[in-house]
Each structure stands twice: as C-alpha cells, then as structure tokens.
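hi! just following up on the protien thing from before. the input was this:
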Amino acid sequence: QVQLVESGGGLVQAGGSLRLSCTASGTIFNLNAMGWYRQAPGKQREWVATVTRGGVTNYADSVKGRFTISSDNGKRSVYLQMDTLKPEDTAVYYCYVKQGLVTTRDYWGQGTQVTVSS
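and the predicted 3d structure came back as:
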C-alpha cells in the first residue's frame, strides 16, 4: 500500500519562504509524476505544480516564478520550495503521486498546513 507523508508546513510572514517535503512508501509501479495541490478554506482544491518522472515541471500561473518543484525519484520524494509567500498562498497543501503510464492511479498525502500572515 502506498503512503505519502508530508512535512514542512507552518506559519510564515508574507514575503517569507517555506519548503515542503513529501516521501512515498510502498510499491509504486511505473512512477509517472509527482506534485502538489492546495485547498484554501471555502475553496476547491487547486493544482499547484507537477514534476514528471523525466524532470519536466509545470506550475500554476499563481505560483510561477515564486515556487520551485523538485523530486528525487530514487527516494520517491517531491519537494516544493515556496518563496515570496503571499497571504493568498494560505492553504492545506497535498502532495500526490501518479502511478501508471496508460491507466493511472493517484495517491495522496494527508496534507500540511501553510499559513502566511500579512
């Protein structure tokens, strides 16, 4: 059974930085991609960033230029370096792993709270 454990959330002032980490345990067949979503209070979960197995990265427009996603496939870990944080970045951040190349399956972490004060 695949489990994802996140860490690194917390409280930071606007303009500050945080680094989120997520490590997957268990057997993952055909790792496809890893990434992050977030969900603010009263809002739907939104995609933040993805890194493919080949190292290609993509970002939501709202975080482009401020957040950097990276991964260590050998460690089954994904990271999110968040710089120049804004109050609107406040949310629970969830990491995910996409398994499979044709038929895919997503696994999710339990979430870590990021709070940015103004």
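The chain has no helices and eleven strands.
The radius of gyration is 14 Å.
cheers
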